[in-house]
Amino acid sequence: MGSNSRSMADLARQLVLALQPDLGEGSSQLETTTRHVVSELKANAHGGLRTEWEDFARICVEEDVADAYDKLVGKLEHHRRRGGTTWDDNMPLHTTNIPQHIQLLLALSGPIVPKTRELAQEYLTRPPQVPESDLRLYEEIMAEPFEGDHWGPGYDEEVMEGWTESEDSEGNTTATEEEVVTPALKTPRYRSAAADAAREAELRRRAEEEQRLLFAKLSLRDLGANAYWKSGGCDVPIRDDLHGWRALSSAALEGILKDFAARATQAASLRAFVGEALAAGPSSWRSQRSPGASETREAFAEACRLVLNNLGTWIADLESAFMGSGISTSTVVPGAISTTLLLQLELTNKFGDLLDHLCDLIPFTSSANGLLNAIYGAICAPTSLLSRPALVDIFIRSATPMWRLLGDWLVGGMPVPDSLTCGDADIALQGWDDERPLNPEFLIQRDRDSSWSDEDFWEAGYVIDEEGWPAWLHGTQEMVLEGGKSRGLLRSLSTANTETGEWQALEAIIDPFTADIPHALSEYLTPFCKNSQNLLGEVLEWDCELQKHLLAIDALTLMRGTVVVDDWAEWLFDQMRTGKPWADFQLLTHSLRDAIESHGAQWMNPHAVRARTLRGQGKATLVDIRVDYLVPFPLSQLFTPTAMDLRSDVFTFLLRVLRARKVLLKARVLAETRAGGRPEELSQLRRLRHATAWVLDTLWIWVNDVIEIRTGRHRQHMSQGASFQRLISFELDHVRELRRFCFLHAETSSTLEAVEAIVDLSEDLLRVATSTQGVARPVSSPTRPRRRRSRHQDSDSDDSDDDADDALLPQDDAREGGSPRTPQLDQIAETLKASVHRFRQGVDALAAQGGMEAADVRDTWGMLVFALGDWKEPQL
């Protein structure tokens, strides 16, 4: 063992010296390299995994690969010369236009990488390419029907195709074969077992294919004109009873018996359901019933019982015909009763699909609406064409109770408390009272969380059942709801003309051959619903005086009654200016009623007017004022508290602008009557007051024009006789639109801040005018200002008030001297310019919003933009 180690060390030292002769004998580097080589050899000898040896083994094959590469390049030059071109050494080789084996050789020309191994594996296991002519002939042979020129008479395959039986299969190979098959010129020194197995399997497969192809050609040649596709054939008579039960196999008979057994099981389950559903007998829905019991379920069970009776009658007729004691109604002739296939076919055609559908519908019987929707879905299914008439008949019988309840809703109307009918509305609005309940299986139900006093009772009082609107009444939901509610409301108003047409049965409207059931039902329901809605519109217009109440509400909340509102506003502003109480509910309401009665406004009911504040005395401001106008039932469902609250927002906005305009008017009167001593300062104040008043007057005129136009349009909508729900929507949309034009919408909040800043400047100008009066008047001459005020009152007595001016006079001592332009006026001027600039920018943005559908709104904002364009900045 030691000698072997020494010999290995000597060999390793000799190898190192042969590779690196510059290392001298006895040097430390030589000894280190020798020991490293010995350790590597020992590690490999003891079983260590060395990937370098695998690479080395592959590198050893490169000599064979190089020889094959030279020969294949020569073959490639030969192919190019045959194609009419010569090989150019300068022409670059591209992997896209050379065969796969050349690509492999090109990959082997460089260092071996994983991609090279993948390409080699693909090359070894690639499928062969079948010659094009043989492949085309094989596909034509296996195709049906057998067509083509080579199948016709007189076709010589040897002449047309150019081959004979004596043709040597080992003849010259074509270029395609040369590309497909790459012969091994020499047995390689290294070859994997998997590659050899794949190559042998491929050779066997090709040999089998060639053998099958040759056999097919010989068989076709032997057939000649006797092939079945070349003959016309003949008719073969078949007896009528050829396929009797004796001709069927045991498996076929077993399948037929299983089908009969399945049908019998379905019939048994239907009988059990019918017996359970009809066990209690017909009873009213008010009586005690088991869970899930309903009139619709009983009607469906009765329809199933009729189907079972028809099935039993059909079977009895067959039995009678089979025994020869009667005439069968079956299409199967008595002599062929034993023909089980025909019997099975007739059972399937007459009752098969129907029994399948009925068994599938039983789980839906716990809900009336769900059951009818399931039956209608089965009718509309494309697989139920044969059973559709029977399914429609079952639907008519099952939907009869629901149709009767629908007639009670549209003809009798929604249940209304008797107290409303008798005129005692206050009791009825407090709760349920003696309101008639609806059938629990009806598709419309009463919401127990909503009472007649709720403002959304018309929308939320009677709602659709939780299962939704039925599909067989598609497109009639809103119409049916409004029709029943309108009819009930008409009965509560004791309207004489509440008669409707006779409610027809469902079978008189649709039949088993009706193509579109929802359309037919919609055409029948439309006159009932439209008649109720139109009649309710007439009652609201003439009996309830809708337009009269609407006029009074607009006069109050939108300040259309200018004389009354202006008189009351003067009293309110005077109370606020003098510090007197004004926020009390009774004080505000009585003062407003007094203003109405003093002017004799007969078109407004003083007792229906209410005025209040959101906060008490000492905390309330002008913004907290709310006005209401009470209307009788059923208009209280139309002018809801929400609508009145939105109208109060508009009223408060108009009231604030009106007060600012009146304050500026007082400031002008006060400044002009106290003029003297400080003419330049008074001139500056006059210009600021004029610029502020111009903006507020422009805004006031524009808002009133918009309200006038929109109010007239709203009155036309309210008089069109639309449904009550549409009238409620018209009212809410109208007041929301007015709030938007009064800058009370979330999108106009920044513009509203600019308007409020301009309104607040009126108070600042009034304070400046008051202080200017004190400065301009000499202390030693207290009567001089009053004399000037009297002269001004002679020419403009309507715009001045001695008591109001005295109340506006300051109580502090007069201040002598000072600059012509006070810092306070400069601050007001800058604030006014900035606020008007923001106001105009906000209006410009509003005028640019929206698309073509908002053209009217954009034009309205554009009017204000055009008007504000003439505003001039005050020059101080």
From TrEMBL:
GO terms for cellular component: gamma-tubulin complex; microtubule; spindle pole; spindle pole body. Residues 772-824 are annotated as: Disordered. The keyword NAD does not apply. Residues 546-846 form the Gamma tubulin complex component C-terminal domain. GO terms for molecular function: gamma-tubulin binding; microtubule minus-end binding. Gene3D superfamilies: Gamma-tubulin complex, C-terminal domain (1.20.120.1900). Its main location: cytoplasm. This is Spindle pole body component.
